[in-house]
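[job 0412] stage=complex_fold ligand=fe (ii) ion status=START
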Amino acid sequence: MELLNSKTYLNLAKDYAGECQAQVRYKFIEYGARKQGYGCLAEVVDKVVYNEFNHARMFYTYIQKATKEQINNIEICTGYPFKEKWDLIDNLRLAAEDEEEEFSRIYPEHRAIALEEGFEDVAKLYDLIIGVENCHHKLFNDLYTQLSTGTLYKKEKPVKWKCAGCGYEHEGLEAFKICPLCLAPQGMVMLKLKDE
Ligand SMILES: [Fe+2]
Ligand SMILES: [Fe+2]
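[job 0412] stage=complex_fold status=DONE, emitting structure tokens
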């Protein structure tokens, strides 16, 4: 079967659109976090934005490889989430949900179709992206839990807090409100993430 005439081709176009939208939704979160002074959280989310860009880029590459012709339009009829509003905590929770939908339902379905149609390289790409979206899901859940329970900068046991601005370190239950060295606000203290 030719990729151009397959279900997989349409799935690649749908998923390209989905990754583009995820990238923008997470950019909204990053923007909001930065505005509220959570500079380090914004940096973490920005890395996910760049991951989604690269997922979109790889889907796009497969779409282009299918033909030498100029592709003026691919008709896709499908739905995408528009759940997020402008609340940072809520949006982290919703981002975790969206990631779960991708790694546990959408991409496994599209991977199975790619295998049925004999596109093993595309199935492999789905496989690899599923692994990353699972990590994104855990990361957003972690950020949501820490922010909503007030434990982003406050722990039960003493930890080493480090200023992302100047590198100053301090051990304690709570991160310094203002860095004594460079006067950066608490949002510039590096996060303690589960997976690091
Ligand atoms: Fe992605
Ligand atoms: Fe993701």
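The pocket of fe (ii) ion (ligand 1) is lined by residues 19, 22, 52, 55, 129, 133 (CB under 6 Å).
[job 0412] exit 0
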